[in-house]
Amino acid sequence: MPQLFGSKELVEDVHKRDLCIGCGACVELCPYFKNYRGKTAQLFPCSLPQGRCFAYCPKAEVDLDALSRRFWNTPYDARPLGVYQTVVAARSGDAMPRAKYQGGGTVSALMVCAMQRGLVDAAALTGRQGLMPAPRLVTRWQDVASAAGSQFMASPTLAGVNMAVRQGYKQIGVVGTPCQMLAVAQMRINPLEKEEHHVPVALAIGLFCNWSLDTRQLSTLLEGRVASDAIRGMDIPPPPANVMLVETDKGMVEIALSEIKPLIPHTCFTCLDMTSEFADLSVGMYEGRPGWNTLLVRSEIGARLVADAQADGLLVTEAIPAETIAHLSAAAAAKKERSLRILLQRGLVNTANGQRAAVRIPQAAISRILPKA
Ligand SMILES: Cc1cc2nc3c(=O)[nH]c(=O)nc-3n(C[C@H](O)[C@H](O)[C@H](O)COP(=O)(O)OP(=O)(O)OC[C@H]3O[C@@H](n4cnc5c(N)ncnc54)[C@H](O)[C@@H]3O)c2cc1C
Ligand code: SF4
Ligand code: SF4
Fold first, then answer.
1. Spacing, Cα 339 to ligand 2 middle (Å)
2. Which ligand lies nearest to the CA atom of residue 105 in the structure?
3. Is the Cβ–Cβ distance between 174 and 157 less than 8 Å?
């Protein structure tokens, strides 16, 4: 594993390089880091030479090869969709309550099943307070659907995992974006190797993500057009729509993507993962098939949960055409390529001579992503 450092280095490497995505992994661990309106900041300096804040952060010294060997027993080779067992089309089944799911409700159905079957005793989900996404800790399966739908903003969701640990939960479930799943993977391996720092994550469900939006900038843009308490949901339909849709009490508000795209945090352009490669299960939209999701089954825990959810009538799955998988793979490979170029330009990969990197990956993986480099 890479060397571990403390909060001083976290601030230098992540905050000052404008790499923080506000995932919340360093929040609620100690009194020093707080997230306020989408931005994480250090309130007071801390002199510990090593900290969980640095160890969990998905933007500081992440060793993808070590994680891949640990989780998947294989070197990191930059395959576009990561390591997985199967990929299927999925949607929630008849046993699920009706709710405003983002796609087919697959994420909610899997988390409901995990809670009903006793795999998970608390789920760290994402809700919204006004326009701001916020962690929502759910301890009853009946409340899972209340967090359905996507907030297309960077969210401090993982502060919810740290809160769950503090409250004594022993089988924590979590849903999040690929950067958040990277942080969760680092939480799961207890990098500081101290028993009191064990994070009992029993289930990690990752989302697909190409980019998110800066919370403060999006709320400023929306404030002029929509009352925050009138927002019912948001969606970014696939091309050629070219708009973001905000559903309100009074109808749909369309915002051109040309207005939205400047609000993407710079750190999203250095992100190699589109499909949450270190989660137990990964879920995204099924392009061209509304009401369905694409579901990647990665771990044994994930495979068992999918079988249980089908048996309980909570989840329906179908085969997915090879050309749909090829299309998804191409999109994931394109994200790796453009992000690796930027990471290399900024000198953030595999640094030497005591310089700290954002990410460490084998040379063979670099050559696979950028064959002509
Ligand atoms: C920022 C972002 C970008 C995305 N980009 C893509 C994309 O490019 N392509 C694609 O196919 N899919 C993308 N998705 C995923 C997609 O929007 C759906 O979340 C996914 O298809 C699951 O649908 P569902 O019906 O199963 O979810 P639901 O059952 O409705 O559950 C949604 C879950 O998402 C969680 N959630 C909501 N907002 C956030 C957030 N900001 N951070 C972390 N967790 C959150 C909630 O806790 C809830 O559990 C993105 C999601 C987010 C949050
Ligand atoms: S752990 Fe998350 S919130 Fe904290 S510095 Fe890293 S990216 Fe930012
Ligand atoms: S693009 Fe990457 S860094 Fe940005 S929100 Fe999505 S997973 Fe996180």
1. 18
2. 1
3. yes
